[in-house]
Design goal:
The structure holds two protein chains of two kinds. Chain A is mainly alpha-helical. Chain A has six helices and no strands. Chain A has one domain: Cytochrome c oxidase, subunit III, four-helix bundle (Four Helix Bundle (Hemerythrin (Met), subunit A)). Chain A has helices at about 15-45, 55-60, 60-90, 90-120, 130-165, 165-200. Classes of the chains: A mainly alpha, B mainly alpha. Chain A: Catalyzes quinol oxidation with the concomitant reduction of oxygen to water. Chain A: Belongs to the cytochrome c oxidase subunit 3 family.
Chain lengths: ~200, ~120
């Protein structure tokens, strides 16, 4: 069944296996949305219950958060360009843009670690209050996902170097791309409902 | 289903420019527009939904499909579930004190004063 479609579809869709893997990954992402929604709900319910620890408006810095957001948005863009290059058949373009995505992801992670260390030094740690527990679990889960994505991307870059563009490697790149864009979607909601609302209310 | 693949990644560039613009608008709305808090929250949440849609449609190729249906329908279901979980939790756990914008003898914002009240309730332990 895959034979007659090979010309019309990009390489990652060219095999039945590849198509099933991509659909399966979308199902995983749908489940991830449910996971993050429970964390958002927990955070929203515990909002404001800071007990004796600092209030979020005292600690959140608009500058840092905007830089992190722009880094992640840009990395999503470069990841999209990587997929675009892959579909053009350019292995070099794909690897360059993917490596750039990786660098941006690492700098995002650096900012997030700096931010967490700063908050803990100001007396807002995981165990300080219900609010900060909700905050660290939500943003921390996102940070863990970014960390996993970085490790995953490094592994895929190594495979691309070794094997070039095949139906298997393009499918893997496409899926890690979906994952990376998805993390950006989650971050948009963290940026809005955690940081922006936290600074306003 | 698959659009003609253009040499120049115009979709990505437009999506990127839009998402940066929307982020700046959201930050300005929240930090220096001076709108009432409830309007700020409604505005920036709406902007976030638009941005998420940009990611899904312009970057993630959500309308593409292989042998099966395109994945946008199950992602739509997932977002509905997410909205129900978040709104339902807030309704069950917080309804009744987060919407109190009335009292004037506390501090500034409507939200913070109601949270103070809720903390006083919990001070027993």
């Amino acid at each position: 069944m895959s034979e007659n479609k090979t010309d019309a579809l990009p390489l990652e869709y060219s095999t039945h296996q590849g198509q099933m893997n991509i659909v399966g990954f979308w199902i995983f992402l749908a489940a991830e949305i449910a996971l993050f929604s429970t964390l958002f709900a927990t955070y929203a319910v515990l909002f404001g219950r800071t007990a004796d620890s600092p209030a979020p408006a005292e600690l959140f810095e608009a500058g840092t958060v905007l830089i992190m957001t722009f880094i992640l948005l840009t990395s999503s863009f470069t990841c999209g360009l990587a997929i675009h290059n892959m579909r053009e058949g350019s292995l070099k373009g794909l690897m360059v843009w993917l490596a750039l995505t990786l660098v941006l992801g690492l700098s995002f992670l650096g900012f997030e670690i700096y931010e967490f260390v700063h908050y803990v030094s100001e007396g807002a740690a995981l165990g300080s209050s219900a609010f900060w527990s909700g905050f660290f679990v939500l943003t921390g889960t996102h940070g863990v996902h970014v960390t996993l994505g970085i490790g995953w991307m490094i592994a895929i870059l190594i495979q691309l170097k070794q094997r070039g563009l095949t139906a298997v490697t393009t499918r893997k790149v496409f899926i890690v791309g979906l994952y990376w864009h998805f993390l950006d979607v989650i971050w948009i909601f963290i940026f809005t409902s955690v940081y922006m609302i936290g600074m306003v209310v | 289903m698959e659009k003609k693949h253009s040499k120049y990644p115009i979709n990505h560039i437009v999506g990127f420019a839009l998402s940066i613009t929307l982020t700046i608008i959201a930050a300005w709305t929240a930090l220096s527009s001076g709108l009432p808090t409830m309007w700020i929250i409604i505005t920036i949440m709406a902007l976030a939904v638009i941005q998420a849609a940009i990611q899904l449609f312009m970057f993630m190729h959500i309308t593409e499909s292989g042998a099966t249906n395109a994945p946008w329908n199950m992602m739509f279901h997932a977002f509905v579930i997410a909205a129900i979980i978040v709104a339902g939790s807030l309704f069950v756990m917080s309804f009744g004190f987060t919407h109190d914008h009335g009292g004037g003898d506390h501090h500034e914002g409507g939200g913070s004063e109601s949270h103070e009240e809720s903390q006083e309730d919990h001070e027993g332990h």
